[in-house]
# Entry
Amino acid sequence: NNPAKGCNTLNEPQANLNCTRIDSVAVTADSLTLFGLRIENQGEIAVGASNIGIYLSDNELIYPGIIRAPLDVRQQDSLIGVVPIGGLNVGESVTLDASIDIADPSILAGQYSVGAYANYDRIFDEGNLGDNGIAYTTATVDLLPNIRCINNGTITVEGTSIVLSDFSLEN
# Structure
């Protein structure tokens, strides 16, 4: 009789990592930085090194898609980066700044809530995955398109108009 991963049938001490704070977020054309990201071990046992998933969401609830209840139809948020952290003892916390490269053409321009989710890849079992995430919700982030010319065309002047031809652009 093997319990499913994440189930605690013997009332053993449990790990419980939480993202408890994001002080601010800054964005440029190619990077997104979270300042004052705080992760706490609020569990009953020490945990080893783990990963924090950084997400873009269309709402204030960060949902990495790992907690699936029957008939759960929520859309999984977009993972844009991973921040590794070292192990944490019981009651210990770490506060850090994390920069994520967003010059990826799969990240579309728009407004998003930015969030973090502790132990997003479930490196270790936890007693409560429902409190692992936090969103920076006091503002949304505008991601700007990254349009660039990939081949040179011709530019001609016709009267008071400038005519561009044979250019190829990509985002």
Summary: The CA atoms of residues 129 and 164 lie 54 Å apart. The mean pLDDT is 80. The first strand starts at residue 17 and ends at 21.
